[in-house]
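Protein modeling request. Please complete all fields; requests missing the sequence field cannot be processed.
Requester role: graduate student
Desired output: 3D structure, token encoding
Chains: 1
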Amino acid sequence: MARHSTTLAQKIKDSLRAATAVETSGVEPIPEDGRSGGPGSSFTLWFSSNVQFSSLSSGMLATAAFGLGWSQALLAIVLGSAVGAAAIGVMSTFGPRAGVGLLVQSRLPLGRHGAAVPAVLVFFKACAWFAVNSVLGAFAVQTLLGTGFAPAFALVTVAQVAIALVGYGFIHLVQKTMAVVLPLLFIGVSVYGYTESDLGSAFDPAKAGPLGFAGAFALTVAIQAARALSFSSYAADYTRYMPADTPPGRLFAFAFTGTWLGSVWIASLGAAIGTIAFIGTPTDLVDQVLPGALATLTMLALGLSTITSSCLDCYSGALAWLIAGVRMARWQAVLVVGVIGGAIGWAAGQGDYWKSFENFLILLGNWIAPWLAVMLVHRFPTRRDDNPTVPRFGTGFASWLLGLAAAVPFMSQPGVYVGPVAEDHPALGSCAAAVAFATAGLAQYVLTRTRRPAAPAAGDTTHGTHTTKEIPV
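Delivered output (473 residues):
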């Protein structure tokens, strides 16, 4: 018994040592002898990443801004979260096979230079999310500790950067811990929010305005999907260390379930709170909704959840910066994301972010959706090249641009740009991402069908996928 206890303690100690060791790899392929972990870690990572204030905010928009009743909002949240969770689930399966992230793998269909464009967009997207979450986390810490904005902001940003600096193993360890801690902390506000809110609320035409019911419902679905879609470009970053033979079906199931459960729980809670009050910042939860002790516990939960979510932006944003062609070490790229994201967050400061938040989420879906469509068609092709050489710009880049172009008339970014279709039919203003996805996927399918099929070698069971050796890094 003593020997067994000693062995178990040693295993735990070794696991902790490995998880807290600073990651030395960048964007290069992870060798097979350096792989470890299983699909279960994808559940904890994506569950805890979705238990956060931005999920609460996106759900609150449905009732407080778009006028849906709570049950109507819940249905839209369930549907939108499923779309985003499916994207994260599928994209997670790309990591183990190749041992590199999605942006590296996109060099095959988009070309070496073509893939740099979405890499730059992912970098700036990560900086923007880092900024948003840093401000929200600072509000929570400021309220919790009673400090000024500056020290609270510094505490949150430094914590996020520190986790990302250590790297892959530590991020998974933190998310596993938070997958237990955060539900315990959010139970109180969940019980209070669901019991004190008006769950029987009806649709409010005055809030919906020209959107009408159909437009409000579709916009809620689109925002929920876009929030998770924005994470899907990161998905393979957190599975590339898993063994190549990791079952893709199990990996999809764990990633999908973790994302969907976290998103539906917290977004539906936000929709419930939205029937009571329109919450602009975490501080407003204390001032307008929650009683004293529960408010303190909730601020702790929001502060921790913001840090654990935003460290993903810092880590994956750094990898995107390297993939874009910038020559520096991974830790230096992490600091770049932290500095730029921190500067944006500091400039945004204590302003009202609601309309910007809504536009930001929708805009993300507009360009990420066609990129994901290209990657899916590339992953499951009916034909493929005899020699997968990488041009400067591949067919996938053209397909991606076609998808973006097709979406322009449907785009609805009030104060920035509203396309002719969205202007004449506001209810269709949330369809841009779907149009972009369908157009890019169809274009890539047609273009790849023109390629001459390669005859698989005897015993080759990987036809239609690519190995690490085929992907240029």
